[in-house]
């Protein structure tokens, strides 16, 4: 029988709308996302949605170069958790959010636009749906010194089960339409954040 992993505040990384994220105590290259232990009846169970969507992408042999890969479930003291790659820079530090790079003026607008275009090419070429377009759902990974790429860590695939989620998994044309629609919202969100923090738009 597998022993439960004990997740304590020492391993805590971040709190999301539905899940908490912890470093994996047995493998610091991974994180574990667990549902909040309160108000579970209102959760959409994003872990199950993520697991189903990532299995779908695996079946299609989609590369995980710009998304954090999932590895399945583990038992923890806080309930069932889903394991993902931890997105870190070449020096081992957890990568900065894309939102923080905008707030802190890490890049010129031109450099930023190139990173965004690279992510766009990945999503459109592989038919990957980024539905929850918050800039905090993307990390900017410095994978080699002064070399960067954007990696999505949350918000892929769907917000809930139902007809739309079924279509995402079974209708390429519907998914392509939704990807284009979500991308327009994503670009609008970048523009909005740049203006909010008085950056070049």
UniProtKB/TrEMBL annotation:
Taxonomic superkingdom: Bacteria
InterPro entries: PhoP_reg_network_YrbL (IPR019647)
Pfam families xrefs: YrbL-PhoP_reg
Name used for this protein in its record: YrbL family protein
Organism: Aliarcobacter vitoriensis
């Amino acid at each position: 029988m597998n022993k439960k992993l004990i997740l304590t505040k020492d391993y805590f990384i971040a709190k999301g709308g539905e899940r908490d994220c912890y470093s994996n105590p047995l493998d610091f290259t991974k994180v574990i996302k667990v549902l909040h232990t309160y108000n579970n009846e209102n959760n959409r169970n994003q872990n199950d949605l993520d697991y189903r969507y990532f299995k779908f992408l695996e079946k299609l042999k989609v590369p995980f170069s710009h998304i954090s890969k999932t590895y399945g479930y583990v038992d923890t003291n806080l309930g069932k958790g889903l394991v993902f790659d931890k997105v870190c820079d070449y020096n081992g530090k957890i990568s900065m959010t894309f939102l923080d790079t905008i707030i802190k003026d890490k890049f010129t607008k031109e450099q930023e636009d190139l990173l965004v275009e690279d992510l766009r090419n990945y999503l459109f070429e592989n038919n990957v749906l980024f539905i929850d377009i918050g800039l905090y759902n993307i990390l900017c990974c410095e994978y080699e010194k002064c070399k960067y790429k954007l990696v999505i860590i949350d918000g892929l695939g769907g917000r809930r089960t139902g007809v739309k989620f079924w279509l995402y998994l079974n209708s390429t044309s519907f998914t392509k339409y939704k990807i284009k629609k979500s991308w327009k919202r994503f670009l609008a969100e970048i523009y909005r954040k740049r203006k909010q923090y008085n950056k070049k738009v």
